[in-house]
Design a protein that fits this description.
CATH topology of the largest domain: Rossmann fold
CATH class of the largest domain: Alpha Beta
CATH architecture of the largest domain: 3-Layer(aba) Sandwich
Structural class: alpha/beta
Strand content: 5-15%
Pfam families: HAD_2 (PF13419)
Number of strands: 6
Radius of gyration: 17 Å
Distance between the termini: 17 Å
Shape: globular
Organism: Nakamurella panacisegetis
GO molecular function: phosphoglycolate phosphatase activity
Number of helices: 11
InterPro entries: HAD-like_hydrolase_sf, HAD-like_sf, HAD-SF_hydro_IA, HAD_2, HAD_sf, PGP-like_dom2
GO biological process, one term: DNA repair
């Protein structure tokens, strides 16, 4: 009798997880807020990176978010485009995706980045051959910490939440994973501390993609190998 293996998946955030982009995002938002006459400290911006843009604006602009939000988003888009030449993958990022794909585990970019930003990120990552599916802002009404993007990512590859692991760099990734019922592995590459990532539910924390790759066979990702191999 032939046994059919279940579909398993690793859901990767991209900003700050695979691509060194978080601090470029901070710079772009900082320039945007300065331009609309509402300066915001970089440390506060960094804490809000990876939030849904509406939540980010509400968090950082408060009661002026409705008044200034659209202008700030447009200025952020322009500033980020200007900085995009500095986007680069973290060491080990491509090889990590290759290692997961080699185990016949679906590799999904689970992001709510707008399509224009996502195109820049995918170009910088240069790992299309390893990707099974990709999400974007068009796939869900709300971004992390809501679970919509992760649920969409699972649906695209036909994997159950219990057969997937989320790899991300922010507490918002961890909170979204918990709400979706997906195990979470944290990376410190986006600038958050290990304690914060563990509080957000991380089963394990690594410095960056290269560190996870070096330990991948003893990481939570390895639980997926046994299901597919």
């Amino acid at each position: 009798m032939k046994h059919h293996s279940r579909t398993t998946a690793v859901l990767f955030d991209i900003d700050g997880t695979l691509i060194d982009s978080n601090y470029l995002q901070v710079q772009a938002w900082s320039e945007a807020f300065d331009a609309v006459g509402q300066p915001v400290d970089d440390a506060r911006i960094h804490r809000a990176i990876a939030l849904d843009s509406s939540k980010l604006l509400d968090t950082l602009l408060g009661d002026r978010a409705t008044e200034l939000g659209d202008d700030a988003k447009a200025r952020h888009r322009t500033a980020y485009q200007a900085l995009s030449g500095r986007l680069r993958p973290f060491s080990g990022a491509r090889n990590l995706l290759a290692a997961v794909a080699a185990h016949r585990v679906a590799v999904v970019l689970a992001t709510s980045a707008p399509e224009d930003e996502l195109k820049l990120l995918r170009t910088a990552l240069d790992a299309e051959q390893y990707l099974t599916a990709v999400t974007s802002a068009e796939d869900a009404e709300t971004a992390k910490p809501d679970p919509d993007i992760l649920q969409t990512a699972l649906g695209k590859v036909g994997a159950a939440a219990g057969d997937a692991v989320m790899v991300g760099d922010t507490v918002w990734d961890g909170q979204a994973a918990a709400r979706a019922g997906v195990a979470f592995v944290g990376l410190r590459s986006g600038g958050m501390a290990e304690a914060e990532l563990r509080t957000a539910g991380a089963a394990a924390v690594y410095d960056d993609p290269a560190h996870l790759l070096a330990n991948v066979d003893s990481s939570p990702l390895a639980s997926l190998w046994a299901t597919t191999n």
